UniProtKB/TrEMBL annotation:
Transmembrane segments: 43-61, 90-110, 272-294, 306-324
Chain ranges of the ABC transmembrane type-1 domain: 47-333
Protein name from the UniProt record: ATP-binding cassette subfamily B protein
GO cellular component terms, semicolon-separated: plasma membrane
Chief place of localization: membrane
Entries under InterPro entries matching the protein: AAA+_ATPase (IPR003593), ABC1_TM_dom (IPR011527), ABC1_TM_sf (IPR036640), ABC_transporter-like_ATP-bd (IPR003439), ABC_transporter-like_CS (IPR017871), P-loop_NTPase (IPR027417), Type_1_exporter (IPR039421)
One Gene Ontology MF term: ABC-type oligopeptide transporter activity
Pfam families registered for this protein in UniProt: ABC_membrane, ABC_tran
Membrane topology: Multi-pass membrane protein
Subcellular localization: Cell membrane
Keyword terms of this UniProt record: ATP-binding, Membrane, Nucleotide-binding, Transmembrane, Transmembrane helix
Gene3D superfamilies (alphabetical): ABC transporter type 1, transmembrane domain, P-loop containing nucleotide triphosphate hydrolases
Family to which the UniProt record says this protein belongs: Belongs to the ABC transporter superfamily. ABCB family. Multidrug resistance exporter (TC 3.A.1.201) subfamily.
Length: 604
């Protein structure tokens, strides 16, 4: 078992099998936004008000321009004088309205962003903490890249809709509703003619929209799947290169991208048809309205000023209508993203709350049967038994796939057994709160992956409230102090992906220091299969000996030296214990599997 074994990226089942589909629909989406925006009502409500006002102010333009333009028509004498004064007045009105609109637009954007960005930070936080708290079964069923994509892509799409699409939509809706009312007051006949052409078009918009929503969701899913290939190959870049499998990985990526492209282009075709339809229908409506209006002016049914106003309003209204489809399709895209995020947020998380307990480290597993949820008919453990008194060293040995790591997975309660009992200090392990149970365990994995950060932070991971002196003490006991001190920046040296690269033995000693700091009742040690050089091996072994003192240790053992010193050796095969005893006892048995395994090791 390694660090990675906690969240394997391969070997998965389809997410549909475990996902609790979030109910979708406007009501649920509104409830989601309400929940996250409510704490920011103080900025969000003013932002909405300002938005409606700026929407309304848009009308100042067609209103005053139409009056201004009408003043260009021939006039004489006092009428001309009056017209001159009015020209200045209307021009000033327009400038004032535009000025006000500019100021308000600034505040609107600021307020909206404040509310939306803050709400979205909360959504990101909730999503991330939900992902971390998901039970292992769910985490395994979903690929890591897919979960990451929810956080990266889906939340971003929601953000975009909240800070830009929704405000634009509200603004255009205000323009539409207000514009229609004003136009109706100017001439029922002319505007009625125009409005009669709108509702059928709107119906088609809705029909088109729901189809686009489906296709865009499929494209997003395929993009997330392709991201998994990128994540997996980068995580295992050494293997990819070592096997010269670059072309193979590129091929896999190409496969996913091709299907993404197909869906995406299918979506683009639909969107294109959608936009083409909008252009054709609405442009024709405008032309028809102008034609109809001019004829009305010619027959004296309305005056020129009203006609100019209606024409300008019509231009504004059609601009709003024209931008609606794009906004609707963006919103639908956001709807898909929102659905996926909500689906994740509804997933049941592990209950980590509970009082902390300090265990003595007595372990017992009785008649345990287990199969992984992804392969329910393959028994990985079959009538497995283990019994360790507090402070004992138990070595698990056996061929690969025998079920050694699975035993550890069950002790940690990453999974629940199908049958049988697991007792800790004589009580069923399910009686303990998960987090306090796990705090009583510390894991030194085979392949230690350090977190990006300093060495000090990496050791502190064992116990976040440890003091600097305690960290140094733990490092000393883990035989790590000397090499850390020699590094140019000592404990502050950055490690992990972007930091200094440490050797396998050094990383192991850091993991040991981490475990020493955690001071657990039970130590789980997955010995490295790759051998270290003699000096490094000695340092690691010494550190481990100190760590194992006075605590129960479960060791997935590969080295004979460790096995020899174990109080009990459980030889596993096919998910059960086939031999049990000390080294001497088992080695003495002529045909024991242990003897064969031990001999094999000695020969190397
Ligand atoms: N998450 C999983 N889902 C389904 N099957 C799994 C999972 N993890 C392990 N298995 C299967 O369970 C069996 C036991 O695996 P386990 O990792 O416990 O063996 P192991 O003895 O630790 O092997 P190794 O020494 O190679 O690490 C194997 O057949 C493996 O394929």
């Amino acid at each position: 078992m390694s660090d990675r074994a906690a969240i394997p990226v391969s070997d998965v089942v389809s997410p549909e099998k475990v996902s609790t589909k979030a109910k979708h629909g406007l009501k649920h989406e509104a409830a989601f936004f309400y929940k996250y925006l409510k704490p920011h009502a103080k900025v969000f409500i003013p932002a909405m008000l300002v938005l409606v006002i700026t929407g309304g102010l848009t009308f100042a333009f067609p209103e005053f321009i139409s009056r201004l333009v009408a003043l260009a028509l021939p006039a004489e004498g006092a009428e001309l004088e009056n017209a001159r004064a009015q020209v200045n007045r209307y021009a000033l009105y327009i400038v004032a309205a535009l000025g006000l609109q500019a100021v308000l637009a600034f505040w609107r954007i600021l307020f909206f962003s404040k509310a939306a960005e803050r709400a979205l930070v909360q959504v990101r936080l909730d999503t991330f903490s939900r992902i971390l708290k998901l039970p292992m079964t769910v985490l395994q069923a979903r690929r890591v890249g897919e979960l990451g994509s929810r956080l990266a892509n889906d939340v971003e799409v929601i953000r975009e809709s909240l800070v830009s699409t929704i405000p634009m939509m509200i603004r255009h809706s205000v323009v539409l509703v207000g514009g229609i009312i004003i136009v109706l007051t100017k001439s029922i006949k002319l505007s009625g003619f125009m409005l009669a052409s709108l509702p059928p078009a709107i119906l088609l918009v809705a029909l088109f929209g729901s189809r686009i929503r489906k296709v865009s969701r499929r494209a997003q899913d395929e993009l997330a799947a392709s991201q998994v290939v990128v994540d997996e190959s980068l995580q295992s870049i050494v293997s990819v290169k070592a096997f010269a499998n670059e072309t193979y990985e590129i091929g896999r990526y190409t496969g996913f991208l091709t299907s993404f492209l197909k869906s995406s282009l299918h979506g683009a075709k639909l969107r294109g048809a959608f936009v083409a339809f909008i252009i054709l229908v609405f442009m024709s409506v405008i032309t028809l309205c102008v034609w109809f209006g001019v004829r009305m002016v010619q027959s004296g049914e309305i005056n020129r000023e009203s006609f100019i106003a209606i024409a300008l309003y019509t231009a504004f209204l059609s601009a709003s209508i024209g931008s609606m489809p794009e906004l609707v399709s963006q919103l639908q895209k956001a709807g898909g993203a929102l659905e996926r995020v909500r689906e994740l947020l509804q997933e049941k998380e592990e209950n980590l709350i509970g009082e902390s307990v300090k265990l003595k480290g007595e372990l017992s597993m009785r008649g345990v049967w287990f199969s992984y949820p992804s392969r329910p008919d393959a028994h990985v453990l079959a009538d497995f038994n283990l019994s360790a008194a507090s402070g004992q060293k138990i070595a698990l040995v056996g061929p690969s796939g025998a079920g050694k790591s699975t035993v550890v997975n069950l002790l940690y309660r990453f999974y629940e057994p199908d049958k049988g009992e697991i007792l800790l200090d004589g009580k069923p392990s399910s009686d303990y709160p998960l987090s306090s149970l796990r705090k009583n365990f510390a894991l030194v994995p085979q392949e230690v992956l350090l977190f990006g950060g300093s060495i000090e932070e990496n050791i502190r991971y064992g116990r976040p409230d440890a003091s600097e002196a305690e960290i140094i003490e733990a490092a000393k006991q883990a035989n790590a102090h000397l090499f850390i001190e020699k590094l140019p920046e000592g404990y502050k040296t950055l490690v992990g992906e972007r930091g200094t690269q440490l050797s396998g033995g050094q990383r192991q000693r850091i993991a040991i220091a981490r475990a020493i700091l955690a001071n657990p009742a039970v130590l789980v040690l997955d010995e490295a299969t790759s051998s270290l050089d003699a000096e490094s091996e000695r340092l690691v072994q010494e550190a481990l000996d100190k760590l194992m003192e006075n605590r129960t240790s479960i060791i997935i053992a590969h080295r004979l030296s460790t096995v020899r010193r174990a109080d009990q050796i459980l030889v596993m095969s096919g998910g059960t214990v086939v031999e049990n005893g000390t080294h001497d006892e088992l080695y003495a048995r002529e045909h024991s599997l242990y003897r064969t395994l031990a001999k094999l090791q000695l020969e190397h």
